[in-house]
Design brief:
The complex is a heterodimer of chains A (about 475) and B (about 450). Chain A is α+β, with helices and mostly antiparallel strands and about 475 residues long. Chain A has 19 helices and 19 strands. Chain B is globular. In chain B, α15 packs parallel to α17. The longest helix of chain B is centred in the C-terminal third of the chain and has 41 residues. Classes of the chains: A alpha+beta (about 475), B mainly alpha (about 450).
Chain lengths: ~475, ~450
């Protein structure tokens, strides 16, 4: 039996198959290439082990080329990881034994790979050495990190310094700390510690009540709702604010007297801000908190905790008053407060914070370079202008007066966050930037259990600003 | 030190020559007639041996073992004689299919040897024996035209084998059935694939009325159901798709095709609800990462391998293919992508598609109805199996656990696929005979016209 010569089903089957296979090949290639890094960092991936036996782990550098971490091989071929600055960079550089943390984890993919030229690989092979892993240059500034580390001295707390126009992380300190070079020997002690907080990077993972630093956000919301009407705001403070059965007290019961809006902010008057928060629209505030990345992801590539600030249409007045002054259930990370501060300083534009500057091979060939990138417009430039004005007043006529009369002009907001009962000392906060007229860096400091922000956090900020402007 | 340079340079040579091979395997479609394609086949053969040579350079550089050198020599001799002898014995055959087949066998043998030397040698012996047998098949198919009319016998034989399997088969790995005869394990359902295609092609070539279609469909469905009961989901899917495609070509009826697809969708849904092992496969496909320790292990290891190789691969003996369970049977694609690179692996799939298209083209040209359906059936059997294994390895579709034809380890699978290609070559003979008869007819008419 003879069929027709033309058979369209054959063409349909052929065409369909070709399309299907093209789709599949594109899928396979894009999936493999796009997910290469996350898959390489998976602990089930045997390739990681393979690379480690082939390449020696690369070096981590500070922004001026000082070594933060390097691998040293002895004559028997045993490798040890050395951290020349010891505890100073403990959390941010991290460790790479018994798991990984910090930059050791973030940049693991680069550090274990080697893009060295064939020539230097051949040389390494001839000397019976492993291939040199790629080196990572970070944005970290040794001078600022050391200043911050020393300024925090024996206190517990965290400091984060970022460049507002680029998002570069210049310093990141957390205490209590550990020595990444000897962590293996102390592993038992560190992990058996009940609170196990030594390994916690407080700058990014520590959740603290924001205290008065949150007034930046309450003020922003007030300005968003009322605009220039804020100029007409008046309040007379007698040390406390009462609404029904709920009372909010000013720090140490101080009476601030007659205040306008800016003065309430500069003096950090809790009573006035409790009063302000009751005038706010709850659902609008909820939206603002959303905008400012509360209860949501932050643009941060390493471990961090999510800040939490609850506001909705059904919230009670008492909770609203607590929220307005950054107390109650509200918690933030120093990182988050720093990002908000940096965005204010940068006319409302938040740059994506980054800590890896570039990746180079041992022979100096650039493998990858990271450029500053805007993350999003956190607030409008008008709102940023409003907040900047107020934050300057905090220095000139308010709680951060210890930053007054210097070669540079600083701006910021202090906070004294109460965390247990009123008998214990409060966490001392300061977040700010300098110079006020052309902001370069944003500094956020929390000193646990110290006292008032103006007294304990601001002096640390001064030391950091001094160090920065000295160069 | 020299090993390092050899390994690195050979990476690019391997991917490059494979890319050339792939390019030529599609270029042939532009030229009509085997005569005009001769030079392309020549270049293709050269690319094939450059690839093979570079692979062995890499192996010897990495292992420093001389035994691979002799293996290279023997394999080269077998492949060269296959390509040249085929050309001499069957000048009317299609050389693209043979060249591509040799490429698959070559890549497969290298990868299997790399994973397990003993298995590599076994595969090589079985493949060589199969090639010898395959030389007889085109001629036999051409002579034994009565095979076309034995549809019901094929149906009976296929069902009988499957039923025996269902009753006696020893179950291994939950889905694969092995018969052990004199120490050699044999997977009969691989053979039933060909019998099934013969049955469907032979019946549908003669009858296309509704009643016959229903009867054939029911018998085909019984095949599929038995395979599902045997937990061989991959084969069940292949039989189903092959049947639909052959039916579509035989009847020219998109309606049958559509109805078949719908019933297939319903059947898959029922199977999903009914069988926990089907659900497990689907879950492991949707999210292998949460259960990376157990159900997601194979697929995630496969994904690590595919992405870990990068564009050019880690080089033979440079990766860790053995970390994937059953790598030489079910995850050859991943192993190839890991060590020879994703460019090479993509080219390999493209060559599979080229082989498939060439068989379809032969089917398109052939006038004999049975021959056309047989070619379509074999082509779809082949390409759908490729799709299942490559798609399964890369998480494009759920994993079914079928082999990559000719490349994966498995004697039965290799033998059956070589026989399939030989059958297609047999149909090429039928087609060139058709052309020759048509030519004679024309000549006769001319002479008759001249007489008048």
């Amino acid at each position: 039996m003879q069929g027709k010569n033309k058979s369209y089903p054959i063409m349909v089957i052929g065409g369909f198959t070709v399309v299907l296979f093209i789709a599949m090949i594109i899928y396979i290639c894009s999936y493999a290439i796009n997910n290469e890094r996350t898959m390489m960092d998976n602990s089930y991936n045997a390739h990681q082990q393979l690379l480690r036996t082939k390449n020696s782990r690369g070096t981590i550098y500070a922004n001026d080329g000082q070594i933060l971490a390097k691998t040293v091989t002895d004559s028997n071929g045993n490798e040890t990881r050395e951290y020349p600055f010891g505890k100073e960079f403990s959390h941010v550089v991290g460790f790479s034994v018994n798991g990984r943390s910090g930059i050791e984890n973030l940049a693991n993919y680069y550090l274990i790979n080697s893009h060295a030229t064939l020539k230097s690989k051949a040389e390494a092979k001839e000397n019976e050495m492993k291939f040199p892993g790629d080196n990572v240059y970070t944005t970290l500034d040794v001078k600022l990190q050391e200043t911050a580390y020393e300024a925090l001295s024996a206190r517990e707390g965290a400091i984060i310094v970022t460049e507002v126009k680029t998002g570069k992380v210049l310093a990141l300190v957390s205490k209590p700390d550990f020595d990444p070079g000897t962590i293996l020997d102390e592993w038992e002690d560190i992990t058996s510690d009940k609170d196990n907080t030594q390994l916690l990077n407080r700058a990014t993972q520590g959740l603290y009540p924001p205290g008065s630093t949150f007034k930046m956000i309450t003020s922003l919301e007030y300005y968003r709702e009322k605009g220039d009407e804020y100029l007409e705001y008046r309040y007379n403070c007698n040390g406390k604010f009462t609404n029904g059965t709920d009372t909010i007290r000013c720090f140490h019961g101080e009476s601030h007297g007659a205040l306008d809006f800016t003065k309430s902010f500069a003096k950090s008057c809790n009573s006035s801000f409790a009063n302000i928060s009751l005038q706010l629209d709850k659902s609008s505030f909820e939206k603002t908190l959303d905008n400012l990345m509360f209860n949501s992801e932050l643009p941060w590539d390493m471990n961090y905790s999510m800040s939490s600030a609850i506001c909705n249409a059904d919230i009670k007045d008492s909770d609203m008053m607590q929220l307005g002054i950054g107390q109650g259930t509200t918690t933030v990370t120093p990182l988050h407060i720093n990002l908000i501060t940096a965005a204010i300083a940068n006319d409302g534009i938040l740059m994506k914070p980054y800590i890896l500057e570039k990746v180079e091979t041992e022979d100096g060939k650039v493998v990858e370079e990271f450029e500053p990138a805007a993350y999003k417009n956190l607030i409008t430039s008008d709102e940023a202008y409003f907040l900047k004005n107020m934050m300057e007043k905090v220095v000139t006529d308010g709680t951060a007066s210890r930053l007054k009369g210097l070669d540079y002009t600083a701006a910021g907001k202090t906070g004294s966050a109460e965390f247990k009962d009123s008998t214990s000392d409060s966490h001392a906060w300061f977040t700010g930037y300098a110079p006020a007229e052309d902001p370069q860096i944003a500094v956020t400091i929390i000193v646990e259990n110290a006292g008032s922000g103006g007294e304990y956090a601001v002096p640390i900020a001064k030391r950091i600003f001094d160090a920065y402007f000295e160069k | 030190m020299i090993e390092l340079y050899l390994t690195e340079i050979s990476k690019y040579v391997i991917a490059g020559s494979m890319a050339f091979f792939t390019f030529f395997s599609f270029l042939v479609f532009i030229y009509k007639g085997e005569m005009r394609r001769g030079w392309i086949y020549g270049l293709q053969t050269i690319s094939l041996f450059v690839t093979q040579f570079a692979c062995f350079i890499q192996i010897i550089a990495q292992t420093g073992s001389k035994r691979y050198f002799f293996l290279l020599m023997i394999q080269t001799i077998v492949l060269i004689s296959t390509i040249s002898m085929f050309r001499m014995v069957y000048p009317d055959g299609n050389r693209l299919i043979i060249n591509n087949m040799c490429m698959f066998l070559m890549v497969g043998m290298i990868m299997i040897t790399r994973i397990s030397y003993g298995k590599g040698i076994r595969q090589f012996i079985i493949a060589s024996a199969s090639i010898v047998i395959a030389f007889l098949i085109p001629e036999l198919l051409f002579r034994f035209a009565f095979l076309e009319r034995m549809g019901w016998i094929f149906a009976g034989a296929g069902l009988l084998i499957l039923l025996i399997l269902l009753v006696y088969g020893s179950v291994t790995n939950g889905s694969k059935i092995n018969f052990r005869i004199a120490g050699l394990s044999f997977q009969p359902q691989e053979l039933v694939k060909i019998i099934f295609v013969f049955f469907v092609a032979s019946i549908l070539a003669e009858r296309k009325d509704f009643k016959s279609v229903v009867i054939v469909s029911v018998i085909a469905a019984v095949h599929v159901i038995i395979l599902v009961l045997l937990k061989d989901l991959g084969s069940a899917l292949i039989y189903f798709v092959v049947y639909l495609c052959v039916l579509f070509v035989a009847t020219n009826q998109p309606l049958y095709f559509g109805a078949g697809l719908c019933s297939g969708a319903v059947a898959s849904f029922v199977a999903y609800k009914l069988f926990p092992h089907v659900q497990q496969r689907v879950m492991a496909w949707k999210d292998p990462w949460t259960d990376i320790d157990s159900t997601g292990y194979q697929i995630t290891q496969s994904l690590f391998a595919i992405s870990g190789g990068g564009l050019w691969g880690l080089g033979l003996y440079g990766g860790t293919p053995s970390s994937i369970p059953f790598v030489e049977e079910d995850f050859m694609f991943a192993a190839i992508a890991e060590e020879l690179g994703i460019i090479f692996a993509s080219c390999l799939i493209a060559v599979c598609v080229s082989t498939f298209l060439m068989i379809l083209l032969e089917a398109y040209k052939i006038k004999n109805n049975f021959g056309r359906l047989l070619c379509v059936g074999l082509a779809v059997t082949y390409i759908f199996q490729v799709f299942l294994t490559v798609g399964g390895d890369s998480k494009f579709i759920p994993l079914t656990g079928v082999t990559l034809p000719l490349v994966s380890y498995g004697g039965t699978s290799v033998m059956v696929t070589i026989v399939m290609f030989a059958l297609v070559e047999g149909e090429c003979l039928v087609r060139s005979d058709e052309r020759y008869q048509a030519y004679l007819e024309k000549k006769r008419e001319k002479i008759n016209a001249g007489k008048k």
